[in-house]
């Protein structure tokens, strides 16, 4: 049962020891909200070229196989919308107008009415929650009534799934930069040289390089440019 709506607690709403257990709890809340199926995907900000991603679903196995075989993720409007907007979206014919084959096949597996919303946190972690069912259609009145619970579930799923992954091999990088390290990386990201940063911050170039090298080591980067990009992706310098 949903017992609160505060979104500033450091305690994950769902107590789970693994991502699989966490998704089970997410799917249970989805069923309480009247949805047959739930999907939760999460993408960490690093590594930049191939970010760690997790994907959990209770979709019909036949549809999951078909979705992968046809590589529908490349044209799925739900995914495209979630990547560019955190506003919720409701499935309908107009929404899938550019992908009629995907829409027809999804409906053939009972995925006829759906709702989705994405979330991106300050550390750059992105997730999306998709809820769907065979019937009945989603009405404006139902969505208005369930809006607070849906918003809570998007938040709870993001925070809890992230927490359940924290101890695994893909745990998010935990980095604490000093104020000076943040400043030199911020100016590095702006394209400034060490000499220019020294003038801006009124410190020696040697001191700038010291802070840069320390930040590079903390971030596991190969050079100062890579360190600046990683820090930005992790939300550490903006």
Structure in words:
It is a single chain. With 238 residues, this protein is α+β, with helices and mostly antiparallel strands. The protein has two domains: 19-165, Beta-Lactamase; 179-233, Winged helix-like DNA-binding domain superfamily/Winged helix DNA-binding domain (Arc Repressor Mutant, subunit A), CATH 1.10.10. The chain has helices spanning 19-32, 61-69, 77-84, 100-108, 140-165, 179-189, 194-201, 205-219, 224-233; strands at residues 37-43, 53-57, 89-90, 113-120, 126-133. It has a five-stranded antiparallel β-sheet, sandwiched between helices. The longest helix has 26 residues, at 140-165. It is elongated. Mean pLDDT is 88; it is low at 1-9 and 167-171.
Helices and strands in order, then pairings?
Blueprint: H1 19-32, E1 37-43, E2 53-57, H2 61-69, H3 77-84, E3 89-90, H4 100-108, E4 113-120, E5 126-133, H5 140-165, H6 179-189, H7 194-201, H8 205-219, H9 224-233
Antiparallel strand pairs: 1-2, 1-5, 3-4, 4-5
Helix pairs in contact: 1-5, 6-8, 6-9, 7-8, 8-9
